[in-house]
Please model this.
Amino acid sequence: QVQLVESGGGLVQAGGSLRLSCAASGSIFSFNAMGWYRQAPGKQRELVATITSVGSTHYVDSVKGRFTISMGNAKNTVYLQMNSLKPDDTGVYFCNAGRWAGTRFLDYWGQGTQVTVSS
Model:
């Protein structure tokens, strides 16, 4: 049973920084891609950033230049360095990981970590 466990959320003032971490437990596999999503109150979950096992990254426009996603060497941890945080970045941040198993793509989610940015 693969579990993704996020950490690093919290309360920070606008302009501050936080670093989110996500580690997979119960897995001996590496992932083909990992990413971060967020959900603000009353809004749908949205993609924040993704990274593939070969290092290709993608960011939503609103975080480009402020957030950096990285993956651990074992390809089962992912980090999100968040700088110059804004109140609009507030939400629950979810870790996502996926890997190919034969012809099936297996998708996993963490429980989420709260990020609150005060103005």
In short: The first strand starts at residue 3 and ends at 7. The chain is about 0% helix and 55% strand.
